[in-house]
Amino acid sequence: MSNDSDLLRIGITIGLSSPTETLWNNGIKQNAIYLAETLRQCPNVGSVTLVNTTSVPLEESMPWNTSRWPVKGLGEIKDYLDVLIELGGQVGADATDYLKQRGTHLVSYCCGFEYVHAMESILFKRPMWGYNLFVNQRYDAIWMVPQVDYISRHYFQTLRRRQARTVPFVWSPVLLDQRCRELSKVAEYVPHRDAKRLSIMEPNHDIVKFCLYPILIAEEAYRRRPQDIASLYVTNTESMASDSAEFIALMNHLDLVRDHKATFLGRYDTPYFLSEFTDVVVSHQWENPLNYFYFDVCWMGYPLVHNANMCSDLGYYYPDNDVQIGADTLLHAIATHDQQWEEYRRRQRTLITRYLPQNRSVIAQYAQLLTELRITPPI
Length: 379
Known about the structure:
- It comes from Dyella japonica A8.
- The chain is α/β, with parallel strands linked by helices.
- It has 2 domains: 4-172 and 356-374, 3-Layer(aba) Sandwich (Rossmann fold); 174-354, Glycogen Phosphorylase B (Rossmann fold, 3-Layer(aba) Sandwich), CATH 3.40.50.2000.
- The protein is built from 15 helices and 13 strands.
- It has helices spanning 28-39, 74-77, 93-102, 114-123, 146-160, 174-182, 212-224, 238-243, 245-251, 255-258, 270-277, 292-299, 323-336, 341-352, 360-374, and strands at 8-14, 45-52, 71-73, 83-86, 105-110, 141-144, 164-166, 196-200, 229-234, 262-264, 280-282, 304-306, 316-317.
- The strands form 2 sheets. A 7-stranded parallel sheet has the order 3-2-1-4-5-6-7, sandwiched between helices. The chain has a 6-stranded parallel sheet with strand order 10-9-8-11-12-13, with helices on both faces.
- α7 crosses α13 (323-336).
- The longest helix is centred in the middle third of the chain and has 15 residues, at 146-160.
- The mean pLDDT is 94.
């Protein structure tokens, strides 16, 4: 049995832009909470704290339970950490030097498609760092979630001069359940006897999660069985549908648009939009084969038509970019889902247990990673 003095005090960085920002504006804050929930289960961990790296003041109205997931400013906690995991807020050169002098291990936790983001920033003039780029080369370890390995591993390794390794992807329904309790109606899927309402909720920030292929899948299904599809809602497209001549021109060739079945909307949080407007979700990814959105949808029991090969046993899977098979899969989901919707939800939740913070294998892997980190002299 470990002595309390042997237990690790861990910080996970976040970068708050507002003291009351929503947890649903991107996956980074959720990722930090799910990782914290996992690490606190490890037998060699004594405490886990979320560490804000910006100057945004911390207030009582944080959008998560601060008793369960405490948050401190970096300046407040920098003398009390054994390990700092940089996830959602970058640690600068001076802070790195201070932490290293204290013997704190620094881990880069990579959960974004940084190579893609850098490429798009350069090619499409999307400013990210300008001339003031700081690439920290004093990490003691680089941990990356499996879905970013193929695209970004060598981008991480060459620039940061450190080998990277994959770590378990973790997700929890804890934030989803919290949001669902706030809604005015039942958020989980219930059968809808009439023609189905299709939803596409890709963020459309970059090429890895874009709405066009799901729209084409819905179009192909509609051409075959228009009586089965009542509407198509596409979120995060309001500006494209207003300002992009190319997007408007493409959409005007579709029967769904010509028949006034398609609606292009702004941003919504997932639980609310599913509960109010959705019977089937259609999705597509390009080198993003694990994503919290898939788990949110499937945990709530909604049919998810998707091509994410790392979780192909979830939802209704179609391969690669095959729109025709995607349409087949969508029509199959429309025709059969309501006959086994309760069993589907039970099956999805059973499958998702492999990603939960309570999963013994996940806990053991992170405990081992921390053990290996602890015996490595800080750089």
